[in-house]
Amino acid sequence: MSPLVLALVAGAVIGLALGALGGGGSVLAVPALIYLLGFTPAAATTAGLIIVTATSATALYAHARDGNLAWRTGALFTAAGIAPAFLAGAGAGHLPEPVLTVAFAAIAALAALRMLRPSPAALSERIHPAKAAGAGAGLGTVTGLLGVGGGFLAVPALVNVLGLRMRQAVGTSLLVITVNSLAALVGRTGTGGDLRWEVIAPFTGAAILGAWDGKRLAAKLSGDTVQKIFAGVLLAVAAFMLVDVIT
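User: That's the sequence. What structure does it adopt?
Assistant: Structure tokens below.
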């Protein structure tokens, strides 16, 4: 299968994940770029941030239009993560790749297990500044360090820590992903490796189109169903990456 076809197929799947689940894009994008399209890890993590920044911004518009966005909580959560994302992105190249891979897989698995727990009662009208800032800073660090948008952590944090409803957490996480990914990209300027734009461009285009279909898919599923799908994807990716490191 040609790189162009692989890029289009992978991009469509990642767009569906972002549009429907509010995350999982970079979790899927980075392995796809490495194992299917032959990117180096450094180039894949940077390219993944480019793809997810563009795709999540598109999906954010659709969710915001439908009112699935907690603007005040999202803004505080996002603002706290900008500086950590930038600093961690600048320093990511100094850590060994196996360490980053294991850390990535462990965090993804932990987030998945949390998503399988029953959600707390919605508290969307109450903002806890300290909790939002702490969770946002931690998420920004992970985004910059591991080269992922952070939706796989943002959604559990917004649901379990800040008490947002699932659909609202999905929409709000896209705001967090967009800004954190952009900040991490700025921090990685000049360290991204060889970026193959002939692959990144169609990959991104397919992901953007997929995000619109993902948004429609999310409207047809219950919040619990979305959570279970999200958790299953995360556990599968975590297991794959751990096996890859071991072997």
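The chain has a mean pLDDT of 79.
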